[in-house]
């Protein structure tokens, strides 16, 4: 079930971000994308009864494949896989203590990552 949740969340998040627009700039990358991605990954995992961590790993794998097919290369894709795996671990850990509010630390970490990545590259 985690494969379905991960792939469905990747498609859903891309759809949400597509509706938000391509020219959203820094605000879209740092604020909207982390919320859309973390809520869809965790929400669909919970809805489908899938493993939270593994759902995040599959989502990261989908980003890896998108980066490879989009010409961005292996390194951004591997970074995405590592990031989403870490965020899955954080979310799963906090879920035991904070319930669905567990997405908040993941969103914050994701936003900091995106902000740093935009500033570096």
Notes on the protein architecture:
With 121 residues, the chain is mainly alpha-helical. The protein has one domain (2-120). Helix content is 86%, strand content 0%. It contains 5 helices and no strands. The protein has helices at 2-20, 25-48, 52-69, 74-98, 103-120. α2 (25-48) crosses α3. The termini are far apart. The model has no long low-confidence stretch (mean pLDDT 94). This is CAAX prenyl protease-like protein. Keywords: Membrane, Transmembrane, Transmembrane helix.
Order of helices and strands: HHHHH
Report the average pLDDT across residues: 94
| Rg | 13 Å
Instruction: Kindly give the count of domains.
Output: 1
List the helices and strands and how they pair.
Blueprint: H1 2-20, H2 25-48, H3 52-69, H4 74-98, H5 103-120
Helix pairs in contact: 1-2, 1-3, 2-3, 2-5, 3-4, 4-5
Transmembrane segments: 42-66, 78-104
Protein name: CAAX prenyl protease-like protein
Keywords: Membrane, Transmembrane, Transmembrane helix
């Amino acid at each position: 079930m985690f494969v379905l949740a991960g792939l469905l969340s990747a498609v859903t998040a891309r759809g949400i971000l597509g509706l938000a627009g391509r020219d959203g700039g820094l605000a879209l990358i740092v604020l909207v994308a982390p919320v859309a991605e973390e809520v869809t990954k965790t929400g669909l995992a919970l809805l489908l009864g899938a493993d939270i961590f593994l759902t995040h790993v599959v989502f990261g794998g989908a980003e890896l494949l998108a980066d490879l097919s989009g010409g961005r290369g292996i390194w951004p894709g591997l970074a995405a896989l590592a990031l989403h795996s870490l965020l899955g671990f954080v979310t799963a850990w906090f879920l035991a203590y904070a319930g669905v509010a567990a997405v908040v630390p993941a969103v914050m970490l994701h936003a900091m990552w995106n902000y740093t990545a935009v500033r570096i590259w």
